[in-house]
Amino acid sequence: MKKEFVRVIATTVLIMVACFVMAQTKVKIDKSGSKGNVVFLVVTEGSKQLPEATNMAIKTQRKYPKSEVIAMDRTDKANSTLVTKYGLAGAPLPIILVIATNGVVAGGLQLSEATPEDLLDLVPTKRQAAALLAFSENKPAFIVLYKKNMKDKLKVVEECNKAAAGLGGKAVVVEVDLDDKSETGFMSLLKPDMKATTTHVLVFNAKGQFTDEHKSPVQSAILIASSKKVVKSSCAPGACGSGGCGKK
Known about the structure:
Number of strands: 8
Strand order of the largest sheet: 2-1-3-4
Order of helices and strands: HEHEHEEHHEHEHEEH
CATH topology of the largest domain: Glutaredoxin
Low-confidence stretches: 1-23, 234-239
Helix content: 25-40%
Largest sheet: 4 strands, mixed
CATH class of the largest domain: Alpha Beta
Structural class: alpha/beta
Number of domains: 2
CATH superfamily of the largest domain: Glutaredoxin
Mean pLDDT: 87
Radius of gyration: 21 Å
């Protein structure tokens, strides 16, 4: 009886330790994001090539101060939930993932292919990260492109919000100012008409595929229909970041 009691206690302690370790990794990622930092997550199997992968991540971090390097061992059962969440079960290792400030994985590169410059190219803008998060949650996105002097913007956003509500709240509205220099990277993927004089909406389905572009005035019913379109031909991976396509 005493041995059984000790065994149960030992098992309970191991479970608590495992949960604590996993929580620590998740807490580190969440804490970094709350500070507005991007995370370069170094994923390895044990200590195999850990120094080399970590060194690459550190070199990248030095070029992008608003970031943090965190290491994770895929073989550690305590990280199983994160391995599943990030789709790392069959991924070739070592790999360095780029995690945006909102927690979404924006992309990743194997150590053999990684350079600081290429990893930095995977860092999404704030609005791009919002769209990527929607796609990671299988939600359509209505990306509203406007300029501050466009008086039709409020009405367009209103219709987009109606469309999102019509989809049971399972859609995201992302507003992007065409003159916002911090969104230049996102603009290069979306390829909007920079000379536009009216607000327009790019619609992406839940798979992150571009389906339609609508210029003001827009109607929520049409936006909903666009968000449900199925695109047979997919775009190249990473066209809008991990899990999403850019405008064709």
